[in-house]
Amino acid sequence: ILINCMGTEQEDYIKPQIHVKNPHLDLMEEDILYHFNLGTKTHNLPEMFGDVKFVCVGGSANRMRAFAKFMHQELGLPGDTDEITDICEGTDRYSMYKVGPVLSISHGMGVPSISIMLHELIKLLHHASCRDVNIFRIGTSGGIGLAPGTVVVTDKAVDSFFRPQFDQVVLGKVIVRSTELDADLADELLQYSREMPDLPTVIGNTMCTYDFYEGQGRLDGALCSFSTEEKLEYLRKAYDAGVRNIEMESTVFAAMCRVCNLKAAVVCVTLLNRFDGDQISTPHEVLVEYQQRPQCLVAQFIKKTLGLI
Ligand code: R2B
Ligand code: URA
């Protein structure tokens, strides 16, 4: 790296870099990001993604397209939002949209789906030499003791035993990784939420499970092996451990971002209060509005960080 008289390149040089923790990558002549239909030989990743500063991930492809269009408007970018195309259109595994410095990607449902996406995303950001990147999961969740529509900024991502860890099985052994998130980023998001009307927001622990039904203590799945009292006792224990919402990706998201030096936050809206029931019976239009809430909060963060407001 050459340093010019203004020192700008040096400044860039000291900005936090994305760490890929895999010595084998250096020995590979080409890296094919199979589930994105992108690769280091077929695409100029630094040119396509080098300016990315904010990455937002969420379960649904449609929601992440809507978020990209919303960010296009919020950032006042030129051109028509209908021209925003799916960078991964050659595959139907994930969808990816780029608007200015914002990358919006879908990850599907559950730990295995988001983990595959994150491996390829982190390598993509590394190959593109991105620096100083903030990453957000914007999603939905079931609330514990909160009014539906409340946004939860995650303090700690915890597993089904309320432990702040993610257990990854590697070669038949369990590797335990910390799920600690960036406390300053969470605080900043919480502060900005205070300035926004109609955005009830709390900070709390988020429990990540491997199932939507029995795994989240639901009585309405195809299988159920416990009583209503046992369900409520488990939710009460979760509440006492600081858990305010339940979803299906936060622990692996937190663990992988932490190891790779990405500043990460999890922002999920609650669709229901699990003390009151299990079925999601709220009208569709109301659910659509709820799902925009994490998007609005993260958009506010991005605009403030870019000095636009
Ligand atoms: C939240 O919503 C999905 C299940 O409905 C899952 O991906 C999650 O974490
Ligand atoms: N997503 C979940 O994982 N659980 C819920 O209860 C609602 C959305």
TrEMBL record:
Question: What Pfam families is this protein classified in?
Answer: PNP_UDP_1
Domain named Nucleoside phosphorylase: which ranges? 53-302
Name the chemical reaction catalysed here.
Answer: uridine + phosphate = alpha-D-ribose 1-phosphate + uracil
Q: Does the keyword Metal-binding apply?
A: no
Q: Which GO biological-process labels does this protein carry?
A: nucleotide catabolic process; uridine catabolic process
An example molecular function term from Gene Ontology annotations: uridine phosphorylase activity
Keywords associated with the record: Glycosyltransferase, Transferase
Role noted for this protein: Catalyzes the reversible phosphorylytic cleavage of uridine to uracil and ribose-1-phosphate which can then be utilized as carbon and energy sources or in the rescue of pyrimidine bases for nucleotide synthesis. Shows broad substrate specificity and can also accept deoxyuridine and other analogous compounds.
> Record's family?
Belongs to the PNP/UDP phosphorylase family.
Q: Where does phosphate bind?
A: 93, 137-140
Report residues binding substrate: 216, 218
Could you name the Gene Ontology cellular component terms for this entry?
A: cytosol
- Give EC number(s), comma-separated: 2.4.2.3
InterPro entries for the chain? Nucleoside_phosphorylase_CS, Nucleoside_phosphorylase_d, Nucleoside_phosphorylase_sf, Uridine_phosphorylase_euk
Name of this chain's protein: Uridine phosphorylase
Under CDD domains, the record lists: UP_hUPP-like
Keyword check for Glycoprotein: no
Say which enzyme class the record assigns.
transferase
Top-level taxon in the UniProt lineage: Eukaryota
Which pathway does the record list? Pyrimidine metabolism; UMP biosynthesis via salvage pathway; uracil from uridine (phosphorylase route): step 1/1
